[in-house]
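Postdoc handover notes: sequence design on the structure in folder B. Input tokens:
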């Protein structure tokens, strides 16, 4: 991917069948399915790909057990179906994850209630994964659980992924089918013709240059920002932005081989701790987000204390404290508002696909259901774009790597081969080929190696340091202080590949350090 070349093609090219605005999971899914359906499609993203909510999720590809409690069986069925398809067709980028739900005396939901819910979950999935664990077996699996009132626990299967890499893989597939995808290009306004919206005024955020682009159909896939473009058409807002925050602890401090979900002692909301990238990911909160959407969200001290208290109550023997937290992040959910001042957690998580003055807006929903959402949006787009020949859910989500790619990886440890195929698809061969001496070595205690950084700089449209450390790789979250300890070695790779001067490197390091301190660390405030 060469951003400058793609931008030039975008500016100089003919009108498109489809312009997708927004490079999160929703836009990426739409671009892929549209390219697969034969459309001339381009996607523009105002910041970095996946830099919105789609790199800030809990990384679960899940059926949504809690939708059951809300009576949203349809949503759960769709989610389970999509989860199963992704497990089959994502070549390891979506992996099974076993959950355990410890049941304690006095819990909001007991063994029987959860058992019925899980039986329905299994029935929808078409396979039994649930199992009741008596207390001794549960304690064998999770010896650090506090014994207070423990009655046993339910175990069942869901799945997890790396959300940012999933977006990047969808975009890579879309490009391989002819789509243009360009980051740091913002849609500042919409253009209108006789039949309604017929294009957008775009701005290259890097150079500031503006240009117009025409398309038979424009799709607003800007997530929590969707009301901004809708507002340009004079439409009333529909979204209630809700913030959810997470924290990451070293796996050895909170060793969970499987996900553990439990109820928070203060308000009985579900909280979970799950293994991810060798660390333990803890989430999440659910609060009205009142800051401006253009300001990067970060965890507040109150949210931080809330999550820490959940851990301290559930795992009292571990003595977990603020200093154990390696990093934090927050995301803002694009939740379609019911219009009532209800508890945020009771707002429905369904997606919205609407057409207004020719603009199709797609928002709300989940990472898990991106493909069914994309197909629904394209059904609507089909009225304006004659060429669309939707393959529907019949086509696999991600293509299997060709034999030549597998051959290029031969000799690497099996787990690396699997990991690179999952994260890079056909580009996995490029990752290996670009590695210089010593770059096929893991960085600190992570599964990421130096060659992945070099490859990202060379071929994955990195514009800023945070693109590289927070989304192409997740090192900025997995290592303390945003991976400050690797920056001196990283400088050589980045400056060589991106031709950054010393001054540019220093400027990027300062910008990145400020972002990490403000949005990804332990928030200031007194300890609980
Ligand atoms: C805390 C939290 C946890 C979650 N956990 C899960 C989970 O475990 N599993 C799950 O399935 N779902 C989960 N979700 C939901 C899921 O993350 C979101 O539904 C999904 O990421 C939304 O994707 P999107 O592409 O619609 O929005 P985004 O990812 O936000 O993408 C929209 C993009 O549009 C861009 N944009 C905005 N305005 C413009 C413009 N004018 N021009 C160009 N580009 C523009 C933005 O920069 C942004 O990158 C979670 C959400 C949150 C907040």
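Designed sequence:
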């Amino acid at each position: 991917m060469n951003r400058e070349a793609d931008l030039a093609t975008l500016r100089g090219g003919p009108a498109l069948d489809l312009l997708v605005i927004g490079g999160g999971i929703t836009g990426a899914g739409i671009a892929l399915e549209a390219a697969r359906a034969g459309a001339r499609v381009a996607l523009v993203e105002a910041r970095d790909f996946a830099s919105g909510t789609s790199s800030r999720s809990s990384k679960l590809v899940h059926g949504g057990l809690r939708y059951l409690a809300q009576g949203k069986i349809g949503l759960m069925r769709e989610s389970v179906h999509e989860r199963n398809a992704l497990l089959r067709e994502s070549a390891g980028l979506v992996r099974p994850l076993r959950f355990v739900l410890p049941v304690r005396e006095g819990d909001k939901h007991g063994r029987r209630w959860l058992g019925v819910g899980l039986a329905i979950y299994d029935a929808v999935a078409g396979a039994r994964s649930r199992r009741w664990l008596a207390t001794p077996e549960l304690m064998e699996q999770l010896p650090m659980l506090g014994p207070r009132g423990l009655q046993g626990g339910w175990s069942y299967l869901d799945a997890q992924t790396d959300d940012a890499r999933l977006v990047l893989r969808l975009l890579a597939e879309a490009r391989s089918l002819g789509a243009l995808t360009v980051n740091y290009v913002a849609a500042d306004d919409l253009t209108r013709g006789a039949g309604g919206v017929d294009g957008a005024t775009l701005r290259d955020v890097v150079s500031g240059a503006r240009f117009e682009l025409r398309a038979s159909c424009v799709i607003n896939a800007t997530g929590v920002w969707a009301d901004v473009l809708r507002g340009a058409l004079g439409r009333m807002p529909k979204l209630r932005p809700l913030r959810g925050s997470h924290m990451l602890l070293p796996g050895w401090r909170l060793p969970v081989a499987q996900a553990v979900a439990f109820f928070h002692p203060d308000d009985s909301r579900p909280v979970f701790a799950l293994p991810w990238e060798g660390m333990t990911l803890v989430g999440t909160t659910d609060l009205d987000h009142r800051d401006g959407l253009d300001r990067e969200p970060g965890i507040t001290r109150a949210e931080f204390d809330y999550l820490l208290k959940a851990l301290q109550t559930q795992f009292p023997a571990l003595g977990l404290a603020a200093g154990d937290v390696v990093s934090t992040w927050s995301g803002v959910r694009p939740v379609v508002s019911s219009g009532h001042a209800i508890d945020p957690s009771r707002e429905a998580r369904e997606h919205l696909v609407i057409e207004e003055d020719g603009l199709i807006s797609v928002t709300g929903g989940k990472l898990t259901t991106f493909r069914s959402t994309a197909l629904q949006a394209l059904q609507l787009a089909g009225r304006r774009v004659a060429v669309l020949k939707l393959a529907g859910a019949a086509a696999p989500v991600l293509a299997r790597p060709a034999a030549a790619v597998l051959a290029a990886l031969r000799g690497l440890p099996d787990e690396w081969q699997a990991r690179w195929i999952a994260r890079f698809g056909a580009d996995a061969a490029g990752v290996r080929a670009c590695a210089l001496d010593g770059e096929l070595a893991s960085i600190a205690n992570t599964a990421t190696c130096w060659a992945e950084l070099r490859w990202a700089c060379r071929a994955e449209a990195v514009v800023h340091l945070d693109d590289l450390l927070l989304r192409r790789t997740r090192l900025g979250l997995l290592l303390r202080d945003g991976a400050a300890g690797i920056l001196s070695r990283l400088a050589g790779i980045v400056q060589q590949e991106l031709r950054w001067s010393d001054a540019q490197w220093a400027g990027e390091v300062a910008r990145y350090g400020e972002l990490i301190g403000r949005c990804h660390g332990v928030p200031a405030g007194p300890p609980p």
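Context for whoever picks this up: The pocket of flavin-adenine dinucleotide is lined by residues 21-27, 44-47, 51-54, 56-60, 62, 186-187, 221-225, 244, 284, 331-334, 363, 365-368 (CB under 6 Å). Don't rerun without checking with the PI first.
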